[in-house]
Specification:
Elements lengths: L1 H6 L3 E8 L5 E10 L6 E7 L1 H55 L3 H14 L4 H7 L1 H44 L10 E4 L1 H12 L2 H4 L2 E7 L5 E4 H20 L7 E11 L2 E8 L6 H4 L17 H11 L3 E5 L7 E8 L1
Parallel strand pairs: 5-7
Antiparallel strand pairs: 1-2, 2-3, 4-6, 7-8, 8-10, 9-10
Length: 336
């Protein structure tokens, strides 16, 4: 008020006042300088209820953000578990084939022949020439050895498959370490490398046979940002793109196109385009809303969490689609 009276500067401020009973209340005061020297007019408003409501809204927003982030982490975990499940199915198939191979009677037959030969050590020549069983042993050994070699080759292939499956599981578990924590630590990120990690996490070997992933990566600089948040965003979008193309029966060629390019001197864009089931026009403005989902088993947190994370990283995330059956594209813009 002194500044307003002496320097003719209007003011507006909020005050937290302690009353005589020890309680505090919020007020707002607005002062306006009059034409006459050192004269003010203004208003004093009780805004205590509004401030309490603001605090509640702030707390709710923090709870929603926290829930959405945990949901985003759950989305990544679900993807990881899904892919590990697919790998384990492949491993179980290999184990079953190996088990069946070891249960074959080839080795028993070989040991039986060895036993017969041991019994006729003293008269092997007569046994091979005169005995009906001995006469067929040489030819049978040729056939049996060929069969054993074939089984051995098959077993080697299945053992290699098991080794690769275990290695793939180990890689997937290592990939999820960046999202296992909740700290927001900025670090240097090379986006093409991170996208390769996300593709390995999101699309299994069996699914990759049906989906063509096209990469168009311009030369792009390292960016400095939260790698954990970016990983969650990309997993969510690519997982959705994969599900969209697999659910579209009209397209025999199922395609996901990933484009990276510098948008401006200070920003980079990642576009993930699919030829999947598309998005209804009415849903385009709703897909990032908390709790909105079109999936039967969805919870509606994934894209909401991704949009919040993109904003927290200083970027933006939005979607485009010509309509149902016409595919969709998600565009993530990030500061360099």
């Amino acid at each position: 008020m002194k500044n307003a009276l002496e320097n003719r500067i209007n003011y507006e401020c909020e005050l937290r006042v302690r009353h005589t009973d020890g309680t505090y209340r919020w007020y707002k005061t607005i002062g306006h300088c009059l034409e006459e020297e050192k004269q003010l007019e203004g208003i004093f408003i009780d805004i205590h209820k509004n401030k309490i409501a603001e605090e509640k809204i702030k707390d709710l927003n923090q709870q929603i953000s926290s829930t959405a982030r945990r949901a985003g982490m759950a989305e990544v975990a679900t993807t990881i578990l899904h892919n590990i499940g697919n790998i384990l199915n492949s491993s179980n198939t290999s184990i079953s084939l190996l088990k069946n191979s070891f249960n074959q009677s080839h080795m028993k037959k070989l040991f039986k022949i060895i036993e017969m030969l041991a019994q006729h050590q003293e008269d092997l020549a007569d046994f091979f020439i005169q005995d009906a069983k001995g006469q067929i042993i040489p030819e049978y050994l040729v056939v049996l050895s060929k069969r054993i070699l074939e089984e051995n080759q098959k077993n080697i292939i299945e053992v290699d498959n098991l080794t690769n499956d275990l290695k793939h599981i180990s890689e997937i578990v290592s990939m999820q370490k960046p999202v296992s924590g909740t700290s927001s630590i900025n670090e240097q990120i090379y986006i093409p490398e991170l996208i390769e990690t996300v593709l390995n996490m999101s699309i299994s070997k069996s699914e990759s046979e049906f989906i063509e992933v096209i990469k168009e990566f311009d030369q792009c600089p390292l960016i400095v940002n939260d790698k954990s948040k970016l990983l969650q965003i990309l997993v969510n979008i690519i997982q959705n793109a994969k599900e969209a193309v697999l659910q579209n029966p009209t397209n025999l060629m199922k395609e996901i196109r990933i484009i990276i390019h510098k948008n401006t001197l200070h920003s980079i864009q990642i576009k993930i385009i699919d030829n999947g089931i598309g998005i209804k026009p009415d849903n385009l403005n709703r897909i990032f809303s908390f709790g909105f989902t079109t999936k039967l088993t969805g919870h509606g947190f994934g894209l909401h969490s991704s949009a919040l994370s993109a904003e927290a990283m200083g970027g933006s995330l939005f979607a485009e689609s010509p309509g149902e059956g016409c595919g969709a594209q998600f565009i993530l813009t990030l500061p360099i």
